[in-house]
Amino acid sequence: MDLLNAFIALSNYVIVPAMAYGSQLALGALGVTLIYGILRFSNFAHGDTMSFGAMVTVLVTWLFQSWGISLGVLPTALLALPFGILGTMGLVLATDRMVYRFYRAQKAKPVILVIVSLGVTFILNGLVRFIIGPDDQNFLDGERFIVSARTFKAMTGLEEGLAIKTTQGITVVTAVIVVALLFWFLNRTRTGKSMRAYSDNEDLALLSGINPERVVMITWLIVAGLATIAGVLYGLDKSFKPFTYFQLLLPIFASAIVGGLGNPLGAIAGGFVIAFSEVTVTYAWKKVAGYVLPDSLAPDGLLQLLSTDYKLAVSFVILLIVLLIKPTGLFKGKSV
Amino acid sequence: MNSALKNTLLFGIVGVMIAYTGFTQSWNTALLILNMGLISAIMALGVNLQWGFAGLFNVGIMGFVALGGLAAVLVSMPPTTEAWAAGGGGVIAALLMGAATIWAAVQVMTRMKPGHLRTVAVLVLIVGGFFVYRAIFDPAVDAVEAVNPAGTGYLGGLGLPVILAWPVGGLLAAGAAWIIGKTALGLRSDYLAIATLGIAEIIIAILKNEDWLSRGVKNVVGLPRPTPYEIDLQNDPAFVERAAGYGMDAVTASTLFVKIAYAGLFAVVLVLLLWLSQRALHSPWGRMMRAIRDNEVAAEAMGKDVTKRHLQVFILGSAVCGIAGAMMTTLDGQLTPGTYQPLRFTFLVWVMVIVGGSGNNLGSVLGGFLIWFLWVQVEPMGLFVMELVTSGMADGSPIKAHLIESAAHMRLLTMGLVLLLVLRFSPRGLIPER
Amino acid sequence: MSSDPYGDRGNKDASITNPHGQGTARPVKSRGPARPVPGGPFLIGEAMTGGYGAGPDILHDCTIAVDRGEIAVIVGPNGAGKSTAMKAVFGMLDVRQGQVRLDGEDITALSPQDRVAKGMGFVPQTSNIFTSLTVEENLEMGAFIRRDDFRDTMAQVYDLFPILKDKRLQPAGELSGGQRQQVAVGRALMTQPKVLMLDEPTAGVSPIVMDELFDRIIEVARTGIPILMVEQNARQALEIADKGYVLVQGRNAYSGSGKDLLEDPEVRKSFLGG
């Protein structure tokens, strides 16, 4: 019984939250890794693209809410999500046309594009703050829990409760669908294969009649979709605040690099590795240990390895360890 | 137009803009811009060493600047004797213990043969060391932080003159840069960008959370100054008389005098560092750095140790940022870890370097002044524009209120726009590298 | 480099930049449609003078041609501009004077992609396969411009290179040198080209594999596709060639049938080692 309680406590505080956070990181890292693979630079504006997409979704959600449209138990934001994606697609295509395309034509080196993306970061960051302000915004509605701790306890008669938030459920389900679609697209469709071909060998893709501008455009469209979904899911799960999206950049980059930059499978694995290590290292294990260990050994302290404020440090240490052991990341990335 | 004339003109324009602020707004504002401009110029100089000379992409400037700030606290604040008595020894012991653990782990890593045994040994050492460290560290920290938490609650500093903190800040930053560079540049491929990005966040996290060291988010205020205090000047009859001689009241004169004194000190540092950077650029060392930058393969073939050179220049540049950070905290008179944000302290410095001219020391200095001026002045300008735009709207309309309120965010937009425009139309910057 | 405002200053930061697979080609921009010019050989680059971008001329009044059912070979010392001549015909560098004609049309103004659509297949010397894609995906990418059913063509390629059929689900980067060249030629054949251009197809493969590759090339030629190729192994290449061009410093030094060139004492002395 104690072991079961320990497992439930572990699921409640570690596994479920880490699954949701890992899915969000994975979606974010997929966007970063696609840009890295095809446009060949790390996009510092990705966090702010996520925040822009989430912002559009928040605004449309508010509009729907004011019209009285809702999805019942599910958050209205899911209805608004397609509009957020469309808005972000418009934004990234406009950015590409006005900013990035010029440098591609100049055959600028990737590091110049990184600097360019810094400029875009400033602009997007300013734009989002300009439109919606720098504060926390709430846009979550619908049922809060799939399973609440109280119902779970009543159902099972266990001491420990397991709560699964609706947003956590939606996050994981959406992530699975999106990832499956993306992989089907990249590996099975003609356009997806042409994107991989372009990433592999730009000159030969040109000789094969693949239009680089089209590949780049489709990449941006996919990235806009991924970024918006990741941004909205994160915002639903935690809260929408422009600055936190900028802060997400480090764990997202870490996920993409841990998995192997340029490798979509790696981005997903990296997202979960980072999420699980962050949550486990900053979780206070007192409760779980209390169930597992005999009373005489029960710990006095919180058994928290590091305070939650150091979770960024955890991502970073994991990143370093992986790079020391496997310089190209868990899955073979392009950065050799 | 020859380049010397053009450069003089560019610096003249920035000077006129600052002077114009003095005439139209206030001289206090103008001098504040000048002082932070001097500090920004030093930061840009440091980043230019890394990017301009060696193509190293440092996105952790914020961390080095913050370390400089920490140095200011550690050097200049008086020691909290009570806290030292309560837990100082414990903290020191714990830190030594932690360092010893890492040293031992590195020793095991290098001495033992690779294999499972080594992995297990290192893991046991690190995990065991961590728990011992926490066992010594936690009670000591609790004891330190319990000492008058509202006033001190930290170990304090050495109580030395704050000017000493400037080189110390450089040293702290150099130390951190050595660790980062050793790890990130030593990997099979170079991972400097992500490493600096991560370390900067970690440094800020430490400053925010380790109350025993830096009082965390409670901030350290009232740092000693290298300049006289306004109130002392106002009480000095000779000063009041002199001020009256210029037709100024004592309060304004004292604030201006203090700021001018800071400007003088900062200018000395900037000129010294600029002179050193120029010397470095034209020395054999600088020529070699540029040779490596322009053709690494050839330089390597000539027997140059590229990684070592990169490490050198990375440490130097970071040290310069650390010096600037210590100066900034000295100017502010307080360390506020919550205010360190990457957009302001990392990416803005990048804008300065790119706009000024990558690879050109003078350009970086110009970029530092110009971008800092814009950063400060875009807000009032944005407000003015917004008031103009909304002048036709009815008072109390929500859109008008929103637009005026949002004017504050114009500066981010402007910085992005300036960076993109310069990169597009003058990619070498205002003062290009020769 | 400091001279290039959009250069990387030697930055090799793998955490933010990915130089892998980045394009270096600066293909000619399309400047107009093809004009009908009846007559002449099937494919000819006539009196071509040009170089890369604004750089100096590499080719000087250089002419190469191939006719239906023929194999034409370009040989010459290192740096003679052999590959450059090939690229000029394909539109990968600026031809300032002279023209390129294909099947009775002047195609000088077309971009490389448009030339592919007109029926030219080109196999570059290096980086000529998609290493991370499977063999089959490589062939599919070769057929990218085709919207019809290309399974027949793929079967033909597999007939020609049976080993590729066995390895069709393997990433092409895992194959041996000779097999990679087969993938590269196969990829170019997928468009059902009217003419095939090969830039040193036997570079870096062992002599046995080289013989096999030459056999395959002859087989392709027998299906009626004219082949224009650059070869380092001059003697062997001229033996199978209907037409040969010896280039020196971007100019035509000698031309004639493969047999004539092999027998020409001057050519033998200077280029074939006696």
TrEMBL record, chain A:
Q: Which GO terms describe its molecular function?
A: L-isoleucine transmembrane transporter activity; L-leucine transmembrane transporter activity; L-phenylalanine transmembrane transporter activity; L-valine transmembrane transporter activity
Q: What is its main location?
A: membrane
Q: Which UniProt keywords apply?
A: Amino-acid transport, Cell inner membrane, Cell membrane, Membrane, Transmembrane, Transmembrane helix, Transport
Q: Which InterPro entries match?
A: ABC_transp_permease, BCAA_transport_permease
Q: Which residues cross the membrane?
A: 20-39, 51-73, 79-99, 111-132, 168-186, 215-236, 305-325
Please report the record's description of how this protein sits within the membrane: Multi-pass membrane protein
Q: Which GO terms describe its biological process?
A: D-alanine transmembrane transport; L-alanine transport; L-isoleucine import across plasma membrane
Q: Name one Pfam family in it.
A: BPD_transp_2
Q: Where in the cell is it found?
A: Cell membrane
Q: Which GO terms describe its cellular component?
A: plasma membrane
What family is this protein classified in?
A: Belongs to the binding-protein-dependent transport system permease family. LivHM subfamily.
Q: What is this protein called?
A: Branched-chain amino acid ABC transporter permease
From TrEMBL, chain B:
Q: Which residues form a coiled coil?
A: none
**Lineage top rank: taxon:** Bacteria
Which regions span the lipid bilayer?
7-23, 29-49, 56-77, 83-105, 117-137, 157-179, 191-207, 256-277, 311-331, 343-362
One GO MF term on file is: branched-chain amino acid transmembrane transporter activity
UniProt KW keywords? Cell membrane, Membrane, Transmembrane, Transmembrane helix
Q: What is this protein called?
A: Branched-chain amino acid ABC transporter permease
Pfam families reported in the protein's UniProt record: BPD_transp_2 (PF02653)
Membrane disposition? Multi-pass membrane protein
Alphabetical GO CC annotations of the entry are: plasma membrane
**Where's it found, cell-wise?**
Cell membrane
CDD domains tied to this protein: TM_PBP1_LivM_like
Q: Which InterPro entries match?
A: ABC_transp_permease, LivM-like
Automatic annotation (TrEMBL), chain C:
What are the boundaries of the region Disordered? Answer: 1-41
The biased composition feature labelled Basic and acidic residues covers 1-12
Kindly state which keywords UniProt assigns to this record, in alphabetical order. Answer: Amino-acid transport, ATP-binding, Nucleotide-binding, Transport
UniProt keyword Transport, yes or no: yes
- List GO molecular-function terms, semicolon-separated: ATP binding; ATP hydrolysis activity; branched-chain amino acid transmembrane transporter activity
What biological-process terms (Gene Ontology) are attached? Answer: L-amino acid transport
SMART domains in the cross-refs: AAA
Q: Which residues form the ABC transporter domain?
A: 43-274
Q: Which family does it belong to?
A: Belongs to the ABC transporter superfamily.
Name of the molecule in the record: ABC transporter ATP-binding protein
This protein's species is Sulfitobacter sabulilitoris
